[in-house]
Design a protein that fits this description.
single chain, disordered N terminus, 290 residues, globular, mainly alpha, PAP2/HPO
C-alpha cells in the first residue's frame, strides 16, 4: 500500500514539475511584444514536426562537417573518459555500499524519471501545453527536447548493444565487454537514464536567464544518473559519457534552430552555460561557465 502511495506521489510530483516549467517559460514571454500567431494548431504541429525532423537530420550529419575544434573536443572527452575509467570499479563499489542508506523515494524518482514512459509523457505534456496555448518558446523548447531525445536515444540504444559492456554488481569488472550482445547484463554503456534526463534538463535549462533556475533544473536532472550509480546499474563513465552525449547533441540542435531562424530568436536566452571538461594533476571535472 505504501508503494502505491509513493508511485502516486511521484506521478503528482512530475505533473507539478511540468506545470511549473510551463508556467515559468510562459511568464518569460509576457513582457515581449509579439504578434499573436494566426496559424492553426494543426499548421503549428506540422511546422514543429518538420523542424524536429530537420534537427535530427542535422545532428546526425554534423560529424561529416566537423572542424579541428570539434575533433579537439572529441579527443578531450575521450581522454577524460579514459582517465575516469581507471576508478570505475572502486567508485561503483563505493556507490553500491551507500545504497542501503539512500532514501527509497530518491531511488524511485530517479528510476521513474529516467524511464522512457515517464519521460515521453512529460515531453508530450510540455509540448501539448505549448501547442494549445500557441506559446512559441514552449514549442521551441519541446522541439529541442524531442529531436535531441530521438538522436541521443538512438545513439545510446545502438551503443549498448554494440559495446556490450558489463554492468556492475554482477561479478564482472568494468573492462569486460561482449560486443553486439543481447544480454541485459551487458548493456551498461552508456546510461540510458542519464541520456534522457540530462537531455531534458539541459534543453530546459538553456531557456532560463536566472542562474538559480538553471541550477534547480540541473539538480533535478541529476537525480536519475546518481540513482543509477547507487543501484549498481552503471559505471561512473557510463553516466559521465551519457551526460556528455546529451550536452553535445542539445547544443548542436539548439544552435541549428537558432541559425535557421526556425523560431523567434528574441526568445532565446542571452545567457547560457558553457561546459568544459577540465582535468589537472589527479583531478577530473566538468566546469560550467555562466
Amino acid at each position: 500500500m505504501q508503494n502505491c502511495d509513493n508511485k502516486t506521489g511521484l506521478k503528482f510530483f512530475f505533473l507539478i514539475v511540468i506545470f511549473l516549467v510551463s508556467f515559468k517559460l510562459s511568464a518569460q514571454d509576457i513582457s515581449l511584444e509579439k504578434t499573436k500567431d494566426t496559424a492553426s494548431i494543426g499548421q503549428l504541429a506540422v511546422y514543429d514536426a518538420k523542424h524536429a525532423f530537420l534537427s535530427v537530420k542535422h545532428a546526425f550529419s554534423r560529424p561529416f562537417h566537423w572542424k579541428k575544434k570539434d575533433f579537439t573536443t572529441l579527443g578531450t572527452i575521450a581522454l577524460g573518459a579514459l582517465a575516469l575509467s581507471t576508478i570505475d570499479d572502486e567508485s561503483s563499489a563505493f556507490f553500491i555500499r551507500q545504497e542501503p542508506d539512500v532514501p527509497n523515494i530518491f531511488q524511485e524518482a530517479g528510476t521513474r524519471f529516467g524511464s522512457p514512459q515517464v519521460y515521453f509523457i512529460a515531453n508530450a505534456g510540455l509540448y501539448g501545453f505549448g501547442l494549445l496555448t500557441k506559446n512559441e518558446k514552449i514549442r521551441k523548447t519541446s522541439v529541442l527536447i524531442i529531436s535531441s531525445s530521438f538522436t541521443t536515444g538512438l545513439i545510446q540504444s545502438v551503443s549498448k548493444t554494440a559495446f556490450g559492456r558489463a554492468r556492475p554488481g554482477n561479478g564482472y569488472k568494468s573492462t569486460e565487454f561482449r560486443f553486439w550482445s543481447n544480454e541485459p547484463e551487458f548493456h551498461s554503456f552508456p546510461s540510458g537514464h542519464t541520456v534522457l534526463s540530462m537531455t531534458m534538463a539541459h534543453a530546459i535549462a538553456k531557456q532560463f536567464d536566472n542562474v538559480w533556475s538553471k541550477v534547480t533544473v540541473y539538480t533535478l536532472g541529476s537525480v536519475a544518473p546518481i540513482s543509477r550509480l547507487f543501484a549498481g546499474a552503471h559505471w561512473l563513465t557510463d553516466v559521465a559519457l551519457g551526460a556528455a552525449l546529451s550536452i553535445v547533441v542539445v547544443d548542436s540542435i539548439d544552435k541549428f534552430l537558432f541559425n535557421t531562424n526556425a523560431y523567434n530568436n528574441s526568445l532565446k536566452e542571452k545567457k547560457h552555460i558553457s561546459w568544459k571538461l577540465c582535468f589537472s594533476g589527479n583531478t577530473i571535472g566538468v566546469a560550467g561557465t555562466f
